[in-house]
Design brief:
The structure is a homodimer. Chain A is of the alpha/beta class. Helix content of chain A is 31%, strand content 20%. The first copy, chain A, folds into two domains: 239 residues, Alkaline Phosphatase, subunit A; 149 residues, no CATH class. Chain A has an eight-stranded mixed sheet, sandwiched between helices. In chain A, strands 3, 4, 5, 6, 7 and 8 form a six-stranded antiparallel sheet that branches. In chain A, a hairpin with a 4-residue loop joins strand 6 and strand 7.
């Protein structure tokens, strides 16, 4: 059988609950989305619990599951995936932290947890810290967006069981890291050595001198939180024997892709924000399919509307996604197995992720097309896929793409 | 409550995908099968993933799951079940191989991998090898169909981690087995001793003398492949407290039955081929139910049509199955819990097993009869069983048969 390609489109935070102001419809039910509905009508549909029924997923744990990695086995915290997301080549056993550039006074009291909302110069500051040696421990450091950063400690015998140095409030000193288990002593020592050295390297850095001259708050220290050990993740291309590409604006999803060995593509105009150029994403996905056999596309915008509690804005985003899908539909190669789903629900009434299942539609040659006429939370519940889990999706897509190994004979 | 009997009918490879030439219907949807539909109308229906959604099952792994044994725990390869299928009483820890009678020249180059397609005399040849002692290792050997055979090594400290002696091609020598781990040395030595002794016992065997006289290729050696260790399998009759019988034409399914302690019945005319006498199978099942409380029937024919890519032939087979079911329906005792399902899909478009779910119908006193009107892949998806897994089936049937243990109080 001909092997097919797979396109997985994850509409971040798409799922929702009935909204009173929308006549008890969900934003998906209220939106005008003829192309999404066309895919539902010509595909097989169902509900998908990204992790398990009722479990509130993060975007990271859900994407891991959708890609076939059991988050209960491999998720050790956000740090490792954030670090991968900002471009650190994380390795199994590394200890990764999320960090903030902060402003501290001479007694290392935190004056500003966002270093005056610094947006420029953080790459230069990060360079000063990257490659630092703390005894036998090596530091890898990268700036993220705005004041955010990621730090990795690499060395033998390290442990993620250390406390944060981030006091999580202002007006109090940066905290000394403490080991939470005896074998974490060396790690805590390295973290505290990092704090000392970082202060020394940052306080008189040219970027900070320029900031001081302009009266801006200094970025003269980095506080750390959320230590996690980088898990072993069998590379996606080896696991499924496919060349794989990922298109995502947000660092966390880019990090998930990088951590599992999926090439992350940069798409001009695709920002991960509400202003993202969705058609550019669709074109990038089609272009990627020319060389890759698996392409993941994450569209972050619905999640942002959910977090903001903006039902009408979420409807508008869904209608823009529908236009993206119309663009894609007219150009979609016949051999592509297309899956449309979400990583979780972000109901506008909750303003955060919920444990509700999300719609899933698979459009491909050979599926048992069902009677579902609309792509929404209620309609797909009667579809032919029934209720599946995030971890089921990759095996189903691989089987439809004629890429699954037989188990037994 | 009265304890009921269970009849599980596995229609091998029955599931399919929409076929263009059938107006995008599956063979099941296109077939005229009033009795199968009657059972769907009067039973409870659903989709069944033999292993898990999207996973492409073998017939062996799927039957293990349908019988309640988790294949991820107990499946160690085909060898042990093939050996059981040809009648070797395999025991936990035995190392089982699949084998071929072959023709070799004086330098033990394989001249014919099927020994001139030998069909007769293999039982006598097997008897010459069965019971062979290789140091402390005992050989159990049986002929299978045609040139096929199975070998079991029994002894302490054996390992399945040895290479094949089968070169898998002609014109090259029989390969010396090599250990793939240090504790497999004794096993590799025994395998090589078997090759030497077998050649000595077979080359001048009366069967071969007769073949030589007729100008036929000799069956003067056996090559081995696919070593597997026999897993521990709690006997089915003990596990479920039932007397159990199995009706299957193909050796592999007979082997699965034997390996779990299900009595395999011989049914004259039931061949495991397209020419099988299905009504004889139904009568044998009814007769078996007079003493057994659990009867498994495997009908191999749909799978054969799937592998051959013959949609119209698959439809004819389904219509013959329908006649078998009509015969059975009119004679079915009222206390029997009947389950109708498949071990996997073998779509005619794929010509191999796929990871698609299969229909399952349970007809029994006490089920919640649903609205499903037809026994096919699409119709059952809206049934009352929802989407279940192979491992779920036995607990459901035992519960309906009033044979399940309570978990808790």
């Amino acid at each position: 059988m001909e092997r097919r390609r797979i396109l997985l489109i994850v509409l971040d935070g798409l799922g929702d609950r009935p909204v009173k102001e929308l006549g008890h419809k969900t934003p998906l039910e209220a939106a005008n989305k003829p192309t999404l509905d066309w895919f539902a009508q010509n595909g097989i549909n169902g509900l998908l619990d990204p992790i398990a029924p009722g479990v509130r997923p993060g975007s990271d744990t859900s994407h891991l599951a959708l890609l076939g990695y059991d988050p209960f086995e491999v998720y050790t915290g956000r740090g490792p995936f954030e670090a991968a997301g900002v471009g650190i080549d994380v390795r199994k056993g590394d200890i990764a932290f999320r960090g903030n550039f902060v402003t501290v006074d001479e007694d290392r009291n935190v004056v500003d947890r966002r270093a005056g909302r610094i947006r420029e110069g953080t790459d230069e500051l990060a360079k000063a810290l990257d490659g630092m040696k703390l005894g036998r421990v090596k530091v890898l450091f990268r700036a993220g967006t705005d004041h955010r950063a990621a730090l990795v400690l690499r060395g033998k015998g390290l442990s993620p069981k250390v406390t944060d140095t981030d006091p999580h409030e202002e007006g109090v000193p940066v905290i000394e890291a403490k080991p939470l288990e005896s074998k974490a002593k060396a790690t805590a020592k390295a973290v505290n050595a990092f704090t000392d050295k970082a202060y020394g390297l940052l306080k008189d850095h040219a970027v900070n001198k320029a900031r001081a001259a302009k009266g801006e708050a200094l970025a003269n220290l980095v506080v750390l939180r959320g230590a996690g050990v980088v898990p072993h993740l069998e590379p996606f291309p080896e696991r499924y024997n496919v060349k794989a590409a990922g298109i995502a604006g947000v660092a966390l999803i880019r990090g998930i892709c990088r951590a599992v060995g999926i090439d992350v593509l940069d798409v001009p105009g695709a920002t991960g924000g509400l202003d993202t150029d969705m058609v550019a994403k669709a074109d990038a996905a089609l272009a990627a399919l020319e060389t890759a056999e698996f392409v993941l596309v994450n569209v972050k915008a619905p999640d942002l509307c959910g977090h903001d509690g903006q039902a009408s804005e979420k409807i508008r985003v869904i209608e823009r996604i529908d236009q993206m899908m119309a663009h894609l539909k007219s150009r979609l190669p016949a051999d592509v197995v297309l899956a449309l789903t979400a990583d979780h629900s972000t109901p506008v009434s909750v303003k955060d992720h919920s444990g509700d299942p999300v719609p899933v539609t698979i459009f491909a040659e050979g599926v048992h097309v069902d009677d579902v006429a609309r792509f929404d939370e209620r309609a797909v519940a009667r579809g032919g896929l029934g209720r599946i889990r995030g971890l089921d999706l990759m095996p189903i897509l691989l089987s439809l793409a004629n890429r699954a190994e037989k188990f037994g004979s």
